[in-house]
């Protein structure tokens, strides 16, 4: 499937909903979403906030090893690779073809490297080395994932890894509990801080999307 880069910012064709995310240099990242499918087949608002955070802080990413967990369409990792990172975008097996399609859509703007890999949270990660930066956007949304996600973040990080984690504050008590449980676990091994406001894009940030920076606690 070829995407048409000259039409409107969004359009639907062949069961795909195509979206364009503009960068500051006049280039764009083109993402194909599936019209029907599980949560990973569309870009979530937390990812849009992170996309513009990466754009505003390109120098953090250039030349760095980046892993994106629960990448879905791949937008965030593709953006990191377009800013010069060597990125691995990961998700469940069913999203590999969508991530590969979106890599193909954007090869012309990637100045680093990128590959899509299957990575189920909680599984063995010994075939991946610790990245400089781990990206996690909108992955705190169901109870069973809390422990395995925290384990994967912990297993992949070394003391120099910076984890950027974004999530949407949702109103239901069940969703609030998931977030609380996750931070109760992760804060045993990570320092968790808000990303300072001046590093976020003024237009693409809001109070109900949190952007956090986490680093592993150095136990002596
Ligand atoms: C709400 S989507 C977020 C997608 C993308 N990061 C974004 O912000 O647009 C959550 C993603 O986590 C993935 N996911 C859920 N459970 C997972 C698991 N156990 N292992 C790996 N990925 C998982 C889903 O397939 C989906 O792509």
Automatic annotation (TrEMBL):
Give the source's domain of life in one word: Eukaryota
Could you tell me which InterPro entries the record lists for this protein? Methyltransf_16, SAM-dependent_MTases_sf
- Gene Ontology MF terms in the entry: protein-lysine N-methyltransferase activity
GO cellular component terms attached to this protein's record: cytosol; protein-containing complex
The molecule here is called Methyltransferase small domain-containing protein
Q: Lineage of the native species?
A: Eukaryota, Metazoa, Spiralia, Lophotrochozoa, Annelida
Which gene codes for it?
20195094
